[in-house]
Amino acid sequence: MSTTQGSTMLTSTLSKDTLTQQQKLQSLTPREIVAELDKYIIGQGNAKKSVAIALRNRWRRQQVQGSMRDEIMPNNIIMIGPTGVGKTEIARRLAKLAGAPFVKVEATKFTEVGYVGRDVESMIRDLAEIAVNIVRAEKQAEVRLAAYKAVEMRILDVLIPPVIRRAGSFGFENGDEEEVIENAGTRDKFLAQLQNGDLEERSIEIEIQDNAPQMQVLGPIGMDEMSMNLQDMLGGMMPKRTKKRKVTVAEARQLLEQEEAEKLIDMEAVTRDAITRAENTGIVFIDEIDKVAVANGGTGGPDVSRSGVQRDLLPIVEGSTVSTKYGALRTDHVLFIASGAFHIAKPSDLIPELQGRFPIRVELESLQEEDFYKILTIPENALIKQYQALMASEDLVLVFEEAAIREIAATAAYVNQEVVNIGARRLHTILTTLLEEILYNTPDNITDKTVTITASLVTERLTEIARNQDLSKYIL
Fold first, then answer.
1. What pLDDT, in 10s, does the model give residues 60-89?
2. The whole model's pTM is what?
3. What angle do CA 164, 167, 171 make, to 5 degrees?
């Protein structure tokens, strides 16, 4: 077996393993879901418990037989808590666990019809688009082996074009049959070299689809669907354009594989599966919903638009049919997770009908110094681990002493308390400030292969800024 064929079969096996893993994740128990979330998010046990139950209930609903399945509605959730405590990350990780289409939107981007802003139905059209992309990627993985073989033949046709002349044809002598045989033998030799990876650096000229940006059709404000339909209609009238590029064989494989995979999948089936997946497993995360709540029952001015947004959101959350370019999408079983700080407005300031559509309310806790320490050290994508990976690309080992991490956590907690509480996002600004000189001087002026971050270094770099409120406001 050739090296290339072996790697292709391995890729195919990995794709199947990935799909098997996906199926396992979709049937996780609530405790297992929380355990998965714990790998990335510190604390917030109540919120994790609520979303874990919501995700498991979706799996349970799929097991229900008969008409009762359609009667079981998702329990939508409102997360209440300050910024940077993990609200968005919980929803995003939940969607990833379920392999579900996920859309995050800000409620303030939408507006009541007649005001400047986006149509609320656009978030469902975005959900459909993401679902189609997910299903398309899965289908492409299934046909990857066949697409790979088709790409090899296209590259082979460029290297050694096939001879289509036959002996006895008009204008050819009897000896032409030998030319055909000789060409077929040459193609077999080149195919073997291609499969063994011997020609990867060879330059060839290929013809690929020209994916240059098409003309954007702009419709009136709030008329997202009309703009979408006009663009699709005009785009369909434009002929497919191609262009020639001179690339290596290795680059040609990457460029052509997508095209060949697209030819092998049934887009109508992809669309049907995507709409079904969006309807039954889609998750829409509506952030800053407190910004469209009318505090203390106020009316007039901008509050008119805020109440209008809530009224427009209501039928979407309640369950309605939204037209997308892939077909009608029902929102009855889409899971909606809303979040907000609710510093001024309260959840009870939302219109009663909308409150009723978010029966589960979870309050997230503000992060303390110990939480910051855990965030820096425990998660698989912890910020310290990210910086260590970045510096490893420069062959530099970045070491953080225990006392240094404790000092960073203490500084983050102090600045959040004294300036403004932005939660875990404060760690990004603090670490960037702390490591600025190292990041700037590497690799030019850093000779040691190991750099150790000590507590004294943290104190030296951050204490003066943290204690000076005017400085910390602008720097941290």
1. 888 888 889 888 888 899 999 888 888 888
2. 0.76
3. 90
